[in-house]
Design a protein that fits this description.
Elements: E1 13-14, E2 17-20, H1 52-71, H2 74-84, H3 105-115, H4 124-150, H5 154-157, H6 160-201, H7 207-226, H8 236-258, H9 270-294, H10 299-317
Antiparallel strand pairs: 1-2
């Protein structure tokens, strides 16, 4: 039996940009580096991700992704529909029918907004464009089925129309699930490449350098976490990634500890909170690995705790910066 885990995403404001962030925001403007960002080359003639316009577009995409995480839950909707409507498999008249209604108009609007921006984000643009008609189709069939179920039309036609809509509804949910995953994977990979480029340009032992190092190590830990799918899976790579995360987080803690408390070079209090949140992430990750071996039946809660600890940490990273003096 597989481990029930939610996707590793979070919401967080990227410093100075009114957008949501996916996975990690350490490449947002950092006062310690004069606001420099990674200049990720786009397609020939396209904008670079370091440009503010491209960053705004990227954050708009990620805001749409976070909306999907909040309201999509496509796999859950498929399971719910199939579990509560077993009567659809026979020909007896329906006396009840259930579904989880979903609204995706706001997500489509956000994707459309990003698509109209001039900046080019290779790969991500294409996956976002492909996602729009899939969500539009889901919206159409969801509305049709919701009207049928809400009005209890199955009590009139015995379920004839419901049995016709159901396969289209499930197919639309599955298509949305797959398109969302492709969009998420491409977006995460692109952001990873961006942050790696930013780290290569960051001044050693600067705040940006330490934040990016911790961010990338945290993301590495989540990638190893995602590879664990069932009790008995090898957790050594995951626990090793937590050790690596602990090492770079200790370096960040040292940098924070040496910074002046006030005046030039002082840091916001969010920096220490970020260090603490990352330590919590490491702790919950180790608990997850231990529970997987000793009490695998209880591991779902520990998996959730690890994801939440990651999300909590990300909430602090974009606020960890040099104070204005």
């Amino acid at each position: 039996m597989g481990i029930q885990k939610q996707g590793v995403f979070y919401k967080g404001l990227c410093g100075g940009l009114a957008g949501m962030a996916l996975l990690a925001t350490a490449a947002c403007n950092d006062k310690s580096s004069g606001g420099n960002q990674a200049m990720q080359a786009g397609d020939a003639g396209g904008k670079q991700l370091g440009d503010q316009e491209a960053q705004k577009k990227f954050n708009t995409y990620v805001k749409a992704m976070n909306m999907l995480i909040d309201s999509g839950k496509f796999e859950e909707r498929i399971a719910y529909f199939e579990r509560l409507n077993p009567q659809l498999k026979n020909s007896a008249p329906l006396t009840e029918m259930y579904m989880m209604n979903i609204g995706v108009d706001h997500i489509i609007s956000r994707l459309d907004e990003a698509q109209k921006m001039n900046a080019t984000i290779p790969g991500v643009d294409e996956k976002a464009k492909a996602l729009i008609p899939v969500l539009t189709q889901l919206d159409t069939v969801n509305t049709e089925l919701n009207t049928y179920v809400s009005a209890k039309e199955y009590t009139v036609d015995g379920g004839k129309k419901g049995r016709e809509i159901a396969p289209r509804y499930l197919a639309a949910l599955a298509a949305a699930r797959d398109a969302q995953q492709q969009f998420a994977d491409t977006t995460a990979a692109y952001e990873l490449q961006r942050d790696q480029a930013a780290l290569a340009k960051a001044k050693p032992d600067s705040l940006q350098f330490h934040k990016l190092t911790v961010t990338l190590a945290a993301r590495g830990a989540t990638r190893e976490f995602d590879k664990i799918n069932a009790p008995g899976d090898d957790t050594s790579a995951f626990t090793a990634s937590l050790t690596r995360l602990g090492e770079v987080n200790a370096s960040l803690a040292g940098f924070v500890g040496k910074a002046p408390k006030t005046g030039a070079g002082s840091l916001s209090s969010d920096c220490q909170r970020y260090v603490d949140k990352v330590n919590s992430m490491i702790g919950t990750g180790r608990t997850f690995a231990q529970t997987l071996k000793s009490k695998p039946a209880d591991v779902a809660d520990d998996a959730k705790d690890f994801i939440e600890a990651f999300n909590d940490g990300v909430g602090e990273v974009s606020s960890c910066e040099l104070e204005d003096n």
